[in-house]
Amino acid sequence: MIASAHASAGGAAASSGLPQFEPSVFESQIFWTLVSFFLLMYLLKKYVLPPIITILDSRASRIADDLQKAEASRKEGERLLMNYQGQLVAARQVAAQTLDEARMEANRYREQALEELNKELAKKKNAALLEIEQAKQKAMEEVRDAAVELSMLAAEKLIAKSINAKDASRMVQEAVTQLGKQSQLH
Amino acid sequence: MESLPASFIGMGLAATGLGGAGIGLGYMFGKAIEAFARQPSAEGQLSKYVWIGAAFVEAIALYGLVLAFIIMGKG
Amino acid sequence: MDFPFIATAHAEAVQEVAHTAPKMDPLHHFQVVNYIDINPLGLDISISNSVLWMWIVVGVVIGLFHLALKNPTLVPGRLQSVAEAAYLFVETMINEIIGHEGKKFFPIIFTLFFFVLFCNWTGLIPGSFTVTSQLIVTGTLALGIFGFCIFLGAMHHGWHFLSFFVPHGLPPALLPLMVPIEIISFLARPVSLSVRLFANMTAGHTVLGVLFFFTATLEWFGAWLPFGFTVVFTGMEIFIGFIQAYIFTILTCVYINDSLHMH
Fold first, then answer.
1. Which of C32, C51, C110 sits opposite A19 (nearest CB)?
2. CA A53 to CA A30: how far, in whole Å?
3. pLDDT tens per residue across span C24-75
4. For chain C, which chains pass the contact test of at least 3 CB pairs under 8 Å?
5. Using N-to-C axis directions, what is the helix angle for C78-97 and A49-159, rounded to 10°?
6. What's the CATH code of the domain at B10?
7. In terms of domain of life, where is this protein from (chain B) (predicted)?
8. What number of C-beta contacts closer than 8 Å exist between B and C?
9. Which of B65, B70, B71, B72 to mutate: most A Cβ within 10 Å?
10. Chain C residue numbers touching A30 (CB-CB < 8 A)
11. Does this complex have an ipTM over 0.90?
12. Which of C6, C99, C152, C252 lies most in the core, judged by the most C-beta atoms within 10 Å?
């Protein structure tokens, strides 16, 4: 049982089920629903959507801009860093080179000094050896002379016969050589 | 049969449709919780579909309610 | 012993109680009442409480957006971020479902979402009227969407749109069975779309009405319980109002997508 709208509007709605199934109020609601919907759509389209779109777009472009700027400054920073690193490498190279040079110089000095020292030492050693040799020679000569004189004296005294100095010297030489051999054997 | 008591019986029977929706909701939320427990990181994405699904299932129950109201109007 | 006057007094008292005791009528607030009757050219465009609240919804939506976008700034304030989030929300929904072609439907979807959402929400104000609890309102919207989708499909595909009812990869023997099913499910779309929203709103407000009735009529020691439930249910209804508006729009997107891309 479906009562008319005005009757059910007065009350006793519960008995006739849901008021929503009341066809007498449909017509105006269909009309006004469509009107309200399209009015709302028109108003939103005209006054609400454009500002939102504008602001979202401007923000997007701003963000893109900022990103671009950030990217540019990042690149600049990278470039500076590369520059600096290059300079650092160059400086390191220079320092290493200088160090190497200094080391080489020092080595050279050392070697030179060592060489000089060695030369000096060798010279001194040679001189000393020469001196020793000379002294030895001299000493040997002296010993030989003394031995010659001694033996000549002894021989004179012993055989009372003078031998010429040449023969005597030869005999002494033989004696000395023999002596030397004997001493070497010892 | 008298029409009024019959309509009351009919309304009650229409309301039993809620049971099916209850089973559906329980099943769905149970499965959803199971899924969240397995994959907690997916909760954000899945919960959206859970709520949409819940609204669909709930609407099925309310069709029964609407039927009950229609019967009430006819009774 | 006979005291007829007592009996009559009792009967009168019972009648008195029956008259004064509040009658539970949770469906009362769905009643459409015509304030001004307007019938030009046989067309009934009377102003009722439903119509009034439609206008209020339109005003509230426009007013809130106007307030949010009064002086838009690049770094948004609170209301402005809400408005932007709403815009992006609808945009994401359209992009996800319809794709790039959906951009031209943006105003329709946006309007639909906010109309339904605020119809649901303003109905929660005590003493107000829930426009979406009227089957004819949701039905008008749903049928409008349905017609719009058919129109779109016909515009895009011409007669080829009828192949929408023929599922792909089906053995021809099953066609006589499946095609009617497809047609019926297609025709059921506006019905389910409208009834879902209407039933959700009606049921929610009926429950709230019953709870408010108990809150108002029970003694104080009994009233706090239904009162607590009204608080919980109002929160729940706010959530449901959002979800239902979301589903209404998302299904609209799906239907438009079906018309454009045919499954």
1. C32
2. 32
3. 677 777 878 777 777 777 777 788 888 889 999 999 999 988 888 887 777 7
4. A, B
5. 90
6. 1.20.20.10
7. Bacteria
8. 37
9. B72
10. 136, 140
11. no
12. C252
